[in-house]
Amino acid sequence: MSFQAPVKAMQFLLRHGVDMDKITALPKFDDATEELIGDVLNGAAVFARDVVAPTNWNGDQSPATLDGKDVTASPGFKEAYQAFIESGWQSLAMSPDIGGMGLPTVVSVATNEMIYGANMALGLCPMLTSSAAKAIEAHASETLKDIYIPKMVTGEWTGTMCLTEPQAGSDLGPVRTKAADNGDGTYSITGQKIYITWGDHDCAENIVHLVLARLPDSPEGSRGISLFLCPKIFVNEDGSLGERNDFYPIGLEHKLGIHGSPTCVMEFSGAKGWLVGEVNRGLACMFTMMNEARLFVGVQGVAIGERAYQAALQYSHDRVQGRAPGQEKGAPIVHHPDVRRMLIDMKSRLMGARAIAMATAAADDMGDHARAGLLTPITKSYGSDLGVDVASIGVQVHGGMGYVEETGAAQHLRDSRIAPIYEGTNGIQAMDLVGRKLRRDGGEEMRKLIADLKAIQSLVSETSGQGDADLTVCSHALGTGLETLSTATDILLNAAEDHALSVATPYLNLCAHVLSGALLMKAVANGLNAGDENAKPMASLARYHALSVMPRAAAQLDFIRAGANPVFDFPVEQLADL
Questions:
Q1: Residues 292, 306, 423, 445: which is the catalytic one?
Q2: Is 366 part of a structural domain of the chain?
């Protein structure tokens, strides 16, 4: 199935939902005019449709292969990736100081969604490269920066993060990979890493691995982990590539989805590496990479959901079955009320999750790192969970044809399922939101967010009736949602730790239901005031969200009040069977 990025939807949110004028007014974004951003979005949409999307099915049906010590990417991937870097897409939001174009991150949220929607498995490669480059920029020595960043900014060299080991997954404290000081500024890295996304491939001439390892006599747990840069191919003094480093892929995982993404088991056998950041501060350095990756995993969820939605929409126009109310026999199923309900549900929730991702990136662009930090776990968790849900609904719209591989609907569901797991499971995102982002500052940043959302409610109330768009139901739903969010926040701030963490996921979802609806309403109100012709249909979408999605927040409140009791009351020894 073809893929066409939702450029109009993205432009509407950028114009009216994220205060783009304030972002582009910043000196560092002087060149980011509306015309340039429009050209970038349209160019990315064409590239995603014509170059990347045609490789998606190949990646699913013909996964990457391991032959000896080398991985060969799926058919068409190498050519598509070369076109990607030649067109300059890798450098879009990179700082001009390191050779990037310097556009706002919120713009790259839109363009990256296009790439992920076209081929999520292929899009993982440049995503990790960008995040790795930013970690090197933030923490590595000037020498390492000079050697590796220029080629990573262009995408000529790709990057990975090597964290996970068989016994060390979400908890990295048990990492056993060893690092030994060679006495010449380098270290010898020995150990095995698993689940290494794009750990080896033939799409780029070099791969830069960021590896967590433990030095002798380092403290136990995560406080004793250091970060090392290990290139696949050594770089000579003149910048040319030399000999291969001593680590190799020894296996490829056979996965539920994203088959085109080579997920490697990597064996380091005394590989040479260079320290990044301070000794025993590796995890802190790695979080520079992981935080950006978490934002874009949320975007991946929206992207795969968008592709699933487009497939379902197309099928609903093609498939004829039964007779819909008010339609002649032979009308397609898009006219059936329940099919129409599924489609509008998919679209409204995707738009809300897209708005959250853009708001997160916009906060970062504005230098409001506290707000970006608060929103990141919501973006990652809500976007990735939504991707699975929407992809599942997409299969349902297809009916029996969705359950077979022929239509591609099943691939979207399989591909989407990894996003709630990697880069920190969504349970960990909820714990991060409650434990670190909410309770650590006594709820200060969350209360600032709620105050901003109350301002949106006032805007919506004032705008209702503008352009013949009735937003009364939106204003009422947002008011109720904000009361629910404020109550839940107070409960969590005063709860014991076990109670707070037991309801962390319901709290995150509550936040997301209210926030996504509020951001949609903000975009609609601003669009109506600006006379945007797309504001009226968007108002219909916001009203559906207000009636169907936002009320789900209140459904979480009684469970949040109950705390840990419903979770732990049932005896653990009887979980298997009464």
A1: 423
A2: no
